[in-house]
Design a protein that fits this description.
mainly alpha, 0% strand, flat
Length: 115
Amino acid sequence: MDIDARTDHFPEVLALRKSLNEDDDALMLEVAAEATRNPRVMAMLEEADARMFANGCAHMKRMHPHLSDEHIRCCVEVFATMMEGTVYRRLTPQKSDPQHLQEIYQDIVSMLINK
């Protein structure tokens, strides 16, 4: 999936709690849990997060060159937090209307990238 598609569909993915890859989601939760107990796993998690963060920033910069580097870092952090939180929330019953959530997520994405 290219970055344009990810940005365009991000609110829908979050609101409907869609999984881009259920195996990856499960592994992320397992690794995060193990990282709380094992410093070596924590170091690997931090390295992987740094790589993904750098890649996310590079993609955002290509898509939105008008944004400052600091703003891009903030956007990537917010997007990662929303996505990773949704992976966790997927384990529980949804308590809000997905359509309404999608509208709110769209407002958040628009506010972040149209600054």
